[in-house]
Design a protein that fits this description.
This protein has 16 helices and 13 strands. The chain has three domains: 65 residues, no CATH class; 131 residues, no CATH class; 173 residues, no CATH class. It is elongated, with a radius of gyration of 27 Å. 28% of the residues are buried. Strands 5, 6, 7, 8, 9, 10 and 11 form a seven-stranded antiparallel β-sheet that branches. Strands 1, 2, 3 and 4 form a four-stranded mixed β-sheet that branches. Strands 12-13 form a two-stranded antiparallel ribbon. By secondary structure, the protein is an alpha+beta fold.
Amino acid sequence: MKHPLICSSCEYYRYIEYTRIKLHDPENKKGFQIKTPYFVCKECGERESVLPRHKIMKFRDEILPSIYGGEFFDMPLKYIFSELDTEKRFKQFEHLEFQYDPQDYYIIPGLSRPEDDGYLTPVFFDKDLLLYYNGHPNYSVKFTSFSSCNIYIKGKSMFEWGFGINRYGNLFKWLGDLGADFENESMQSHLKRFQASNIPSDHEIVSKFYLSQNPFSPRDAFQDSDNELELFSLMNKFNNEIAKKFGFEITKVDIEKLFDYYKSPIMEEREQVFSSILSLNKYFVENLQEQSLREILLRVGLTSQDLQKDGKKIGSLRLFTLLIKYALKNDNTDEIITPLFVLNDLRQLHGHLSDNSFEKRYNSCKAKLGLASVATDLEVFKEIVSKMILLYKTLIDEKSS
């Protein structure tokens, strides 16, 4: 079954936006306004009313006789949803004192239930909520994808289901889960912190978190990670396969302990992003074992001269490039290896954030990734990770074939 939020024209997940529309009778110049939800595709521009047109027109015909000529006014949406009290609060969760939009529960596909309990109403939070926990020695934030995460306390998950992260960069949790999360008296101090970061609904919950918990198809239910978690797993798998074939490990990273030390960027803040870039460069470039790479390359027929340039030994990243080209026989090496070279370039740029030449060199890195110069730091980071995932998937597939 196709997800209701997928655009019929371009297969892009649509947003939900509220738009003021005028309903009027041209002959008598009578009318009024209502704010009504639309499915909006920001990829191709297609718009579709969430409400059936015949229902809106029926309401217009019923209300127009009672309106004075030329009058326009806002009409609460609850009158359109006549069978539902969509402005109600879900009383069993009132003690949490969160702001949320009850209409989300009825309008966003897959959330409402026959029991009409409001459990899956999304409650939204500013991402700054995570900064406290990620900076506290007893807590950490781990991202299972770019659109889902959880808070950990001394290595154990703080919440059973974690958070979703929508396309606006805001966090959300289900109202019912929050009720269970903060049921215990010991969680009251955390509740106050969450209340302080609670923000109004933006009606947007498209994420791996939402799709996997409210699946409309097997594709929705089984979501692969798309962030560093997937990247580290692929690196580990690739290293193991190389070790089996050639007898040498080409990197020395303890995958089990890695996430105890690694921190993903949380906010659109340059120092955070570049700190994570430095870590990735350490794990994926600086940890490449030059001697192991040389041994493998010599075994597949290259000479010592091939592993030098201008009489000097070439570095680990160039050796890795030769491994891909000659040991794995990849004809597209220069293209797929690009994200690792960009990663290394950005590592060098980190020490020159305030230099006049920074923007020019940074834009050059963006261009190599296929991004426009206006791309944000987080967008650059996500694109590097995405392309590195593709790199390792390609190498593993070729290794297996």
